[in-house]
Design brief:
Elements: H1 2-59, E1 63-68, E2 73-76, H2 78-81, H3 89-105, E3 110-116, E4 122-133, E5 136-146, H4 148-183, H5 188-220, E6 227-230, H6 231-241, H7 243-248, E7 252-257, E8 263-266, H8 268-284, E9 291-299, E10 302-308, H9 331-337, H10 343-353, E11 357-363, E12 367-375
Parallel strand pairs: 7-9
Antiparallel strand pairs: 1-2, 1-5, 3-4, 4-5, 6-8, 9-10, 10-12, 11-12
Helix pairs in contact: 4-5, 5-10, 6-8, 8-10
Length: 384
Amino acid sequence: MTTLLVVVVISTAFGSMAFAWIRAKRMRCSEVEENLKIVNERVEQLELMNRLLEASLNAVPQGLVVCDDEGSDILRNAAAQVFVEARHGDALVEQAIHEVINSALIGEPAHRDLDLIGPPQRMISVSALPLSERNHRFGSVVIVDDVSERRRIDDVRRDFVANISHELKTPVGALGLLAETISTEDDLEVVQRLSRRMTNEAFRVARMIDDLLDLSRIEADDGDKTEAVSLYQVITAATERVKSIARDRSIAIDLHGVGQDLVVFVDERQLISAVGNLLENACKYSDENSTVKVETSCAGSWIEIAVIDSGIGIPTRDIERVFERFYRVDRARSRETGGTGLGLSIVRHVLSNHGGEVHVQSIEGEGSAFTLRLPLGLGKVDEI
């Protein structure tokens, strides 16, 4: 009996121990499963962060290359990947990347500017910076940036400042000289003639400033103030602007070819300015007692406005440049007529703001035809 009791006690003890061991085992398995779950969540988070980082770097327009302390690539975004095994100009960019990396690996920031002939012609900036922490270098980063547009804008700005300085210097200098002459002149007839010259020069400066303000406003505008307007109304308003010039030169403006039921979605003020500048040039550069025609037509989803004159025309060599700021085909006649050299530049920017185009056909000595091409508005005049 005693032996049986001992056996029962020992069996119970072993059973309790076995139960405790099994429970501990289950707890450890549960902990392992929990830890695995945490690890999986961390892995998913890291994968998500890696995808976000990769997508973010690929969205950067500049090329980015990250290298280790031996110069081997660790990461390249999509913009920098195009230079790998590239040919022609892009191969030169890849060569420059390796050159600046070699400098960065010894702790020296490096920079290279490349002029690629193209086409298209491009200016590429390649810069490298060493990566270090507590005086320990562990790699480098390279930035490849296409600065072509930035350089073009800088060139335009620099040329603009030089041109406007030159253009203003002439009439301002003339005003000073005329004023000095008048101050010592006793002949009334001479004084009156010089006064008229001063008035003309003052008007010329004022006109140039007005054109500069118009050009600045039009360039800053992105054409989002458009509304449905009558094309005939726009052209008649532009004609009113040049009525005095046409009358002084006995020039007739023929609007018989203008459709009266066409609608365009435009900034009305801008389009009046564009058509007005074309009409003004046509009147100034046409012979007296001649006719300037304005015609409109539809071509698919586009509408065309043509201003046609029979004036002095434009030499073939100058046709591509007439829309540049301050460019004049005949500088002597332009100054005589008070032209600022900004009118056609204004026309080009107006059409650009509206998603349109401007074309010119001209024969020297026979005349010119400027054509504005704009998206056609929906509807008729009576629906405005």
